[in-house]
Amino acid sequence: MSWMAYEILSIKMYELDKKISRLQSRIQMSESADHDRIRAEKAELQRECAESETELRNRLRHSRNSSVAVLAESYGEIEKSIKTAVARMENADGKEPEESFPADEKIMFAEYALDFAMQAVNHALLVSMEALDAYMSQQEEQL
């Protein structure tokens, strides 16, 4: 790993920290927001998710690293599985999406989705630390 790659990794970890801070702000806002505010925030988040997904897919598509291709394939499978699960939840019984599952079941679904997201963040951080460890070990060997 070059020094530039090390810096990029540090920047990515900083971006993750900012995203988590934004998530915390949204959670706090949702505790006191009215229904219209929740819907507006939900629409904004859907837009942000679509943008970041497109950006990520473009970066993955242009990467020449073979391990990134494996990661991209895995990411695609996970996204497909999540979308399938959400579609099943929304279209159970053939009812309208808002009527399909009671709110408490949607809250439980959201709770587990957040648990999985936290696990993904933990794994990403672990991979980052492993890369930093490898970089530092390489630097020490060169001394």
Automatic annotation (TrEMBL):
Task: Say yes or no: keyword Coiled coil present.
Answer: yes
The keyword Coiled coil belongs to this UniProt entry's keyword annotation? yes
Provide the coiled-coil residue spans.
35-62
The alphabetical list of record keywords is: Coiled coil
Write down what this protein is called: Uncharacterized protein
